[in-house]
Design the sequence.
């Protein structure tokens, strides 16, 4: 079983405090037997996005700086992969990013949120430009891993692209209320792409968040069962804590070889409108970017 620790934590109010609390949480996750530890969205700042641009830029940290690098070093010390999230300093506007370090301390990717919430405070952030999948070495063997972040979940294309790039597991940092519709989106993304999705949210007590970090294993049907099964293997509830999801990779891979979802019967030649740059929506898209 691949064990994924969802670090459903309250931020401390400072990057230094979040660093210390995050390191301690990773140590506890390792003690629980975790192979991967996943943080909620933009942990370095506790998902704070100041309106003042100078303050925002001062709060950002470099992907190669001390905050992020500390978790790469910790990953090697603990022999555990860590997906650390942060407000990323760039040459322009900061980005909402996650870096995945393997259990040897090697950075596999840094993904910046593609679908930023431009209708709100994320209008002050720079969006990412692509989705990435990398082979993660674990004690259970290699697994193909990618990420999307929170609002990316709202767009089926995010998970579909990651599936087409070979992803078996998506690590999803989050910072919003996880109610029935958003949870249903995650369930749907896992079902339609036959992949596992682990999402880590902030607990209740963080503004506009309510916990309910989840893991869906993507396996809707078992050979000996006549009915479908619930693919949710973990719902963490609202309280702060470290929650461990156990993913049966062998069962997922057997399922992917036999079932009809994912890429099996797609008709991409009919999907041209999906990549048409012309906006065809029956409403005017709001633009609150500042």
Sequence:
């Amino acid at each position: 079983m691949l064990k994924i620790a969802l670090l459903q934590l309250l931020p401390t109010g400072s990057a230094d405090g979040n660093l210390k609390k995050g390191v301690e949480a990773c140590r506890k996750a390792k003690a629980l037997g975790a192979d991967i530890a996943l943080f909620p969205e933009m942990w370095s700042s506790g998902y704070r996005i100041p309106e003042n641009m100078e303050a925002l830029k001062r709060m950002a940290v470099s992907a190669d700086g001390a905050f992020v690098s500390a978790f790469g070093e910790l990953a090697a010390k603990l022999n555990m992969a860590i997906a650390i999230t942060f407000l990323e300093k760039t040459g322009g506007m900061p980005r909402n990013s996650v870096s995945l370090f393997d259990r040897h301390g090697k950075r596999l990717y840094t993904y910046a949120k593609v679908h930023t919430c431009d209708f709100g405070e994320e209008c002050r952030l720079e969006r990412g430009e692509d989705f990435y999948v990398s082979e993660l070495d674990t004690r259970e063997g290699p697994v193909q891993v990618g990420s999307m972040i929170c609002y990316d979940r709202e767009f089926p294309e995010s998970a579909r692209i990651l599936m087409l790039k070979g992803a078996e597991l998506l690590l999803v940092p989050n910072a919003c209320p996880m109610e029935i519709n958003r949870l249903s989106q995650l369930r749907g993304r896992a079902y339609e792409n036959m992949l596992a999705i682990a999402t880590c949210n902030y607990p209740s007590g963080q503004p506009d968040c309510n916990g309910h970090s989840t893991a869906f294993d993507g396996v809707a049907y078992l050979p000996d069962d006549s009915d479908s099964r619930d693919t949710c293997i973990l719902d963490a509830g609202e309280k702060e804590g470290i929650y461990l999801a156990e993913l049966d990779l062998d069962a997922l891979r057997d399922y992917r070889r036999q079932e009809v979802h994912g890429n099996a019967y797609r008709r991409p030649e009919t999907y041209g409108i999906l990549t048409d740059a012309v906006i065809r929506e029956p409403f005017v898209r709001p633009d609150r970017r500042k």
About this structure: The first strand starts at residue 2 and ends at 8. Residues 2-275 form a domain with the Nitrilase/N-carbamoyl-D-aminoacid amidohydrolase fold (CATH 3.60.110.10).
